[in-house]
Design a protein that fits this description.
353 residues, two-stranded antiparallel sheet, 54% helix, elongated, mainly alpha, 2 domains, cca-adding enzyme, domain 2
């Protein structure tokens, strides 16, 4: 503590390969599980991930010590790993994500040797604790570089290990709804950050996981015969459970995400006078924003519903009443939901003469 200022101090660390298992341990893939080896500044520098991170400020003469060519790489705007890339990525696969994040954040290029093994080693991210991956996702997508990070992650195969359900849909249909939604969400998030508006993990995850939920609900409805609504409720639980295996989404965000999904079903059939009631829902705005994004992605009937809601929300009280009354009851039904087949009554037999 220096008055009101806090300076964080980290102990220099040494080479784990020369230590015993009591202070350092790695798994079969080479990832460090425990690493409490202490050393000198030269050893610590060799253990940094990138050369631009191996810079030390010497308070004795106010100089910066550069190891591994860090200053030169900084001036050349190059992200370069210290040591063998394959080994360093296996020690900590999150370094692959850090390479992407530093490149987009600092407007730098990833060195060819540093980039070369990333695609082959990307599946190692699946072994990283889900809680740690949640923190990495916040850094990747909530700092104004979501679209750039997403595009680079796709190029290196780093996105699917984090979001396997979305990745599977994109692989199946590279230009489908899920792929389009990702681009729209990333762009929308960057715009909100640039305008200093709030961005929440609840909406972010609800948006990018919407199409996995939709597909799972369709499968459940076919397999079990559940109603449209019940199939969606079951699908929400399944999708969140699988997603939390790779990224641990806190309940304070997963619960609102469920609300946003459930409101999609109500918004699709809630045109007319019922719209006033929906406006009062605490998560209406988030659900409405997702509906607008779906309108951009899907077009067709969803786009028309989104346009109606946009006109309704932006109108004043008097116009809202007129807009609500102009919708006939038949139009408020959910056209996307499977309709119950009505049984025809058998024709009446003629009376015997």
């Amino acid at each position: 503590m220096f008055g009101r200022d806090v300076i964080e101090v980290a102990t220099f660390r040494g080479h784990h390969s020369e230590s015993n298992d009591k202070v350092s341990k790695s798994n079969a893939e080479g990832r460090l599980l425990r690493d409490n080896v202490y050393g000198e500044i030269d050893e610590d520098a060799e253990r940094r991930d990138f050369t631009i991170n191996a810079l030390y400020y010497d308070i004795s003469d106010y100089s910066i010590r550069s190891y591994g060519g860090g200053i030169n790489d900084l001036n050349a705007r190059t992200i370069k790993l210290i040591g063998d890339p394959d080994t360093r990525y296996r020690e900590d696969p999150v370094r692959m994500l850090r390479a992407v994040r530093f490149a987009t954040k600092l407007d730098m290029q990833i060195d060819a040797v540093t980039a070369d093994p990333i695609k082959a080693l990307a599946p190692l991210l699946a072994d990283i604790p889900a809680a740690r991956m949640y923190e990495e996702v916040l850094k990747l997508f909530f700092a104004g570089k979501a679209e750039a990070n997403y595009n680079m992650m796709q190029r290196f195969g780093l996105f699917a290990p984090l979001f396997p359900q979305v990745g599977a849909l994109i692989e199946e249909s590279p230009k489908g709804h899920a792929a389009k939604m990702l681009q729209v969400v990333m762009r929308n998030t960057d715009i909100r950050v640039s305008e200093d508006k709030t961005v929440t993990p609840a909406f972010f995850f609800a948006a990018i996981l919407w199409y996995p939920v939709k597909q799972r609900a369709d499968d459940i409805a076919i397999e079990s015969g559940l109603t449209h609504y019940d199939a969606y409720v079951a699908a929400m639980g399944d999708v969140l459970e699988k997603q939390c295996l790779t990224i641990s989404l806190p309940r304070r965000f997963s619960t609102p995400a469920r609300d946003i999904w459930q409101l999609q079903l109500r918004l699709e059939r809630g045109q007319g006078t019922r719209a006033f009631k929906l406006l009062e829902h605490p998560k209406f705005r988030a659900a409405y924003d997702l509906l607008l994004l779906r309108g951009e992605v899907e077009m067709g009937n969803i786009a028309k519903i989104a346009e109606w809601w946009k006109a309704f929300v932006e109108a004043d009280e008097t116009d809202r009443s007129d807009i609500a009354k102009s919708i006939k009851g038949s139009n408020s039904r959910n056209r996307n939901a499977p309709q119950r087949k009505r049984r025809r009554k058998p024709a009446a037999k003629p009376a015997e003469e």
